[in-house]
Amino acid sequence: MFKISSKEKKGLSFVELQNSSKTTKAKICLEQGARVVSLKFKDKFIIEDYSDFDYKESYASSILFPFASRIKEGKYIFEGNDYQFETNDGHNALHGLVYNKKFELFEPEEHKDNCSATFNYYEKNESKGFPFTYFLSVTYILFEDRLKVRVTVKNTDTKSFPFTLGWHPYFNSTDLKNSYLSFNSDQKVEFDKSLITKKVIEQKSPEIFKIEEQQLDDCFILKDNNVSFTTPTYKIDITADPEQNFLQLYTPKGKDIIAIEPMTGISDTFNNKIGLQVLEANKTYVLNWDLKFSAD
């Protein structure tokens, strides 16, 4: 039987989902945007927190809404109106508005072969940069060899709003230089020095994308919805159900971890419109990410 438990530590609330043998486990923090703090498969930590890699700077495993990546100077125009986000990344706005919001646990379920928990956030206050109300729900379903993530967005306002969604998990490797990715892309996003999109260029990615000595901070437009990451000790396959998918890769210096970020838009999407979606009043949008694990 899979089990769900709750814990508190240093003023933070955590919910743990785990299998009967406790070898597969996901730990979620309510106060940090319902992010996955750690993920273990067959006693191997695929995702874990590092004391020298503060969440306020890493955004590790955060859900990114209403935008992923950056918006230039925090400014955008929507339906003829000018808006200004607070800038939290130099002169730019970064990673949306919910990464530091407290979510509420809702409807935990325990079953023989899986368990699930839903985390809800109700935004009832209109902010200056995003003067809209909304409901955001994140459901994690843990199986023996899989984690399913479902994000539901409902526009509770009387007017439409623009949005993109993203997820920012960092995955461990015992040897990142000898790990590799596989994905299908023939277009790459070219950034300026502030990581704001300049243009999209034609560039075919190799079938085996070796990490080696690369310091990555790159974004690719995917031709399908599949990305795999292979390390010396495990492999993970990530799938997404949107029709258009984008992949951001980032390797922080000095660590054997890599951010593999599925997104529905790119840097400065609110201005360049690449991947931008509009959610009408009282409408709902649902997105699914599926992580399948296998071990050597």
TrEMBL record:
Q: Name one GO molecular function term.
A: aldose 1-epimerase activity
Q: Return the SUPFAM superfamilies for the record.
A: Galactose mutarotase-like (SSF74650)
Q: Which UniProt keywords apply?
A: Calcium
Q: Which GO terms describe its biological process?
A: galactose catabolic process via UDP-galactose, Leloir pathway; glucose metabolic process
Q: State the superkingdom.
A: Bacteria
Keyword flag Calcium:
yes
Cofactor dependence = Ca(2+)
Q: How does it assemble?
A: Monomer.
Protein name, per record: Aldose epimerase
